[in-house]
TrEMBL record, chain A:
InterPro entries: Acyl_CoA_acyltransferase (IPR016181), Arg_succinylTrfase_AstA/AruG (IPR007041). It comes from the Bacteria. Keywords: Acyltransferase, Arginine metabolism, Transferase. It holds the Pfam family AstA. The keyword Acyltransferase applies. It comes from Halomonas pelophila. This is Arginine N-succinyltransferase.
TrEMBL record, chain B:
It comes from Halomonas pelophila. The gene is astA. InterPro entries: Acyl_CoA_acyltransferase, Arg_succinylTrfase_AstA/AruG, Arginine_N-succinylTrfase. This is Arginine N-succinyltransferase. GO terms for molecular function: arginine N-succinyltransferase activity. The keyword Transferase applies. Its EC number is 2.3.1.109. It comes from the Bacteria. Pfam families: AstA. Keywords: Acyltransferase, Arginine metabolism, Transferase.
Length: 357, 348
């Protein structure tokens, strides 16, 4: 049995292990014990506080495998991407250079530093034990955060964003960093990424070139990496696009990984989530039904599991006693359910951003 | 040898000069119509019919014995008044962070029109056969370069505060500019020669329309392109040295196409402007002795019929300069007239 729950201090070693095994290493999840300990404490404060508007809160969740008795994954929500500091991205822009005299019109692509994503709620720092890759646990870990946000909308922004790790070559080098950031820092990508995670990414961003960059002056390898996710994250990207996220013009300032955005109201899990009273039935007596994410109605004791979306003719959600216990619900209490499968998840045409972000 | 304003009948000779100048010499394109317009503009400037901010003063070096033109040079009264005048300014941005224990300075090219309204000395060209060698041709290049300071000193009120000179940048053995290949070629659908030609013809609007308007961080340029920044073509080194001796300095401005340096100064600070003096002329019959190497440069004080030439000697303590008949004929002056004289070897 797998369950999503808020992080606890005792999860520290697991978190450290997951931070170390993330491919590629994540800026938002540095393998640094003291930093992780601080993050856990900060997450506990967020879950324990009364909050009516998004701010500097981080909510860290873990995926616990009860049979194995271990933590198999973690994921975070940052209520506001740039709450205390600005959240920096490069925005892909196109300038038109036209000359009547020469009768030419040229599109000149540039990257401009932007703080525009600062107000969005950021889904980040996801790391999953590789043994669970490709299972429903992966989707649960990624999307249980949406089930949480949907219950506590006042704590989060209307706009959600995710920054995917960018393309790295066979040696773990970022061609984009080597063509851009390296000139300004004389340090390699892994080193600066670790620093940004342990200290602050905006410290780094403040030293990045402040004027727009002309793509024509970057190496072809760097240009090819812009907006391209790390190969290990393609599945995750496709799932979030199916959820209703859109690719945006924004990319990461270090590795040019894509930033996707989603308006809450347009995301499948928000639109399809529904409250149902619980009816407890023995597991063998439950009818067959599609899998769904099912979450309880608690803040600090938030739980989310994958179970069958088995509804009685009167609209009650039928749960096994084991699932009911995991969620901490009794017969008659309400739970939030949303189908795990996404509409058009296999359609391979990704939506493309037409809006501002 | 003497300098005088160009006139309509010089058109054939001027075009022949233009053909000899070659790539990177934007101000003298081999285009008859354009050259004729330059001459007309000069004629009008010397007759003071053009407003001071639109004047072109184009001078030629004349070989009186053959009637050939040996070279030319020019002064633009003010640049950037009719069409924009662009440079890159090489600036420094500090990228510094205490937290990162980082302090770096990044060279950056900023697009600039800072020189709008300044005077420009330009278009200096001397035919190879008139460069040194024959003692008759000693210091022809120096005359071309320095007579302009005498002209500006004499007609100081026609000129603005500052003067600049654009120097030709670096080209490789195949005549290609590494700076252009790395930067300009991405933004202009032309090769260097075409772009250069249009600029020379004064058709510069495409530059403003197509060029990158945001600063360029030089680390994004190739090593070869960076090596061109502020460097001159080897043939341009003597001309640059001469301007520097007059007090012109490179302040970080470069040509947007080839990266060559633009040197500049306040006109009042230029050595030739500061040190040239007006002297009264006395003409003696026959031929007088002259310094073996030309040292005293003289220019007349009238706008119409302006002449300049080397003199065999300097003025006496009363400020009187004695000319022999040949010199007087060359400069078209008589006893009692005034000349502006510069001792080109006097320490500044």
């Amino acid at each position: 049995m797998l369950v999503i729950r808020p992080v606890r201090p005792a999860d520290l070693p697991s978190l450290e292990r997951l931070a170390g095994s993330a491919t590629p290493r994540l800026t938002n999840l540095p393998a640094h014990r003291d930093r992780l300990e601080e993050r856990i404490a900060r997450s506990q404060r967020a879950f324990a506080s009364d909050i009516d508007a998004p701010g500097d809160e981080h909510y860290i969740f873990v995926l616990e495998d009860l049979e194995r008795g271990e933590v198999a994954g973690t994921a975070t929500i940052r209520a506001q991407a740039g709450a205390r500091e600005a959240y920096y991205t490069y925005r892909q822009e196109t300038l038109i250079h036209a000359s009547q005299q020469l009768d030419v019109r040229r599109e000149v692509p540039t990257l401009a530093l932007s703080h525009e994503v600062s107000d969005a709620t950021l889904l980040c720092a996801l790391s999953l034990d590789p043994r669970y890759k490709g299972t429903s646990a992966e989707s649960l870990l990624r999307r249980a955060r949406l089930m949480f946000i949907s219950q506590y909308p006042e704590r989060f922004a209307d706009l959600l964003a995710m920054a995917f790790p960018g393309y790295l070559d066979g040696q773990g080098e970022s061609p984009f960093w080597n063509s851009v950031g390296r000139h300004f820092f004389v340090r390699d990508y892994q080193e600066i990424n670790y620093f940004a995670g342990v200290r602050s990414k905006s410290f780094v961003a403040e030293v990045m070139p402040q004027f727009p960059l002309y793509l024509a002056l970057l190496t072809p390898q760097a240009r090819a990496a812009i907006g391209r996710e790390h190969p290990d994250h393609e599945t995750a990207m496709n799932e979030m696009l199916a959820e209703g996220f859109l690719r945006s013009r924004h990319v990461d300032i270090f590795d040019a990984g894509p930033v996707i955005k989603g308006e809450r109201e347009r995301l499948a899990s928000f639109r399809r989530a529904a409250w149902h009273p619980v009816r407890i039935r023995p597991a063998h007596a439950l009818p067959d039904a599609e899998p769904a994410m099912i979450a309880n109605q608690r803040l600090a004791d938030f739980r989310c599991v994958v179970a069958r979306y088995a509804l009685s003719p009167t609209g009650q959600l039928m749960l096994s006693p084991e699932h009911a216990e995991l969620l901490g619900v009794e017969e008659g209490r309400a739970v939030l359910a949303a189908p795990l499968a996404l509409p058009g998840a296999d359609a391979d045409e990704p939506g493309y951003d037409e809006g501002e972000l | 040898m003497r300098m005088r304003p160009i006139v309509e009948t010089d058109i054939d000779e001027l075009q022949a000069l233009a053909r000899e100048t070659g790539v990177g010499f934007t101000s003298l394109p081999d285009n008859r119509e354009f050259l004729a317009a330059r001459i007309a503009s000069t004629v009008s400037a010397f007759e003071e019919r053009t407003p001071v901010d639109q004047r072109l003063y184009f001078f030629v070096l004349e070989d009186e014995e053959t009637g050939r033109l040996a070279g030319c040079c020019a002064i633009e009264g003010q640049v950037g008044r009719e069409t924009p005048f662009y440079h890159y300014r090489l600036g420094t941005l500090a990228h510094s962070s205490v937290q990162l224990d980082l302090h770096r300075t990044i060279d950056t090219l900023f697009l600039s029109s800072d020189h709008t309204g300044d005077a420009e000395v330009a278009s200096l060209f001397l035919r190879p056969e008139y460069r040194g060698g024959d003692p008759r041709h000693q210091r022809n290049g120096a005359m071309l370069s320095m007579m302009r300071w005498l002209f500006m000193a004499e007609f100081r009120d026609r000129f603005p505060e500052k003067v600049l000179a654009e120097m030709r940048g670096v080209f490789d053995e195949r005549g290609r500019s590494p700076f252009w290949e790395c930067l300009g070629s991405h933004f202009f659908p032309l090769d260097f020669d075409e772009a250069d030609k249009l600029t020379g013809l004064g058709q510069k609007s495409f530059i403003g329309e197509l060029m990158p308007k945001f600063p360029i961080y030089t680390p994004f340029l190739s090593e070869e392109a960076r090596a061109c920044i502020g460097q001159v073509h080897e043939h341009t080194r003597p001309a640059l040295a001469m301007l520097k001796k007059q007090g012109l300095r490179w302040e970080g401005y470069i040509d947007i196409f080839d990266g060559g340096p633009t040197v500049e100064a306040y006109i009042d600070d230029v050595r030739g402007v500061r040190l040239s003096r007006r002297c009264r002329v006395e003409v003696k019959a026959g031929t007088l002795e002259a310094t073996p190497r030309p040292r005293w440069l003289a220019a007349t004080t009238g706008m119409a019929g302006f002449r300049a030439a080397w003199l065999g000697r300097g003025p006496d303590e009363q400020g009187v300069v004695t000319l022999d008949e040949g010199e007087a004929r060359r400069l078209e002056v008589a006893s009692g007239d005034t000349l502006r004289i510069l001792d080109t070897e006097e320490e500044a």
